[in-house]
Write the structure tokens for this entry.
Amino acid sequence: MSILEYNGAAIIGMSGKNCVAIASDNRLGISYQTVAMDFQKIFQMNDSLMVGLAGLASDVQTLDQLLRFRMNLYELREERQMTPRVFTNLLSTMLYEKRFGPYFCEPVIAGLDEEGKPFLSTMDLIGAQAAAKDFVVAGTCDGNLYGMCETLYKPDMEEEELFETIAQALLASVDRDALSGWGGVVHVITEKGIVSRELKGRQD
């Protein structure tokens, strides 16, 4: 088993019409043993930017703290909020710096850019970026997630339809994966703010 699969995760980022959503499961496990059902994997960086971290739980929490520190430094120095594109480059650089002893995390970045357009990006554990216009996935059931997203995704969805689509894609995918699941959480980012909803999933 890969070290990236040790704790289990499922994360999706999906774009809509002037909105973007990011969703994750809640499970924290040690291989096939479930330890907690409320583990946070998605972190808010500012009013229009969130990052999901799939991978080793200790590195997820370490990266979250490091990113907050770097974001605060940037805002103090520049006197403005970091855009999703700048944040992606920052995270990519941070991961590449540690390439010989990497953080075992696969990030998913979702946010709205300066023009209010959706921005989605993901990368591997050494920071090789892969941007997308429609959806990005990461975690132990990424094959299932890709299949569900390709089936359900439509361009230019409104907020409610985007929530329904990403929620169904997540729940259907984690039902077929023993390392992720136990409910989930969906965050929809719009120009008005962030709407967060919890999902109830199978607990077996």
User: Anything to note?
Assistant: The mean pLDDT is 95.
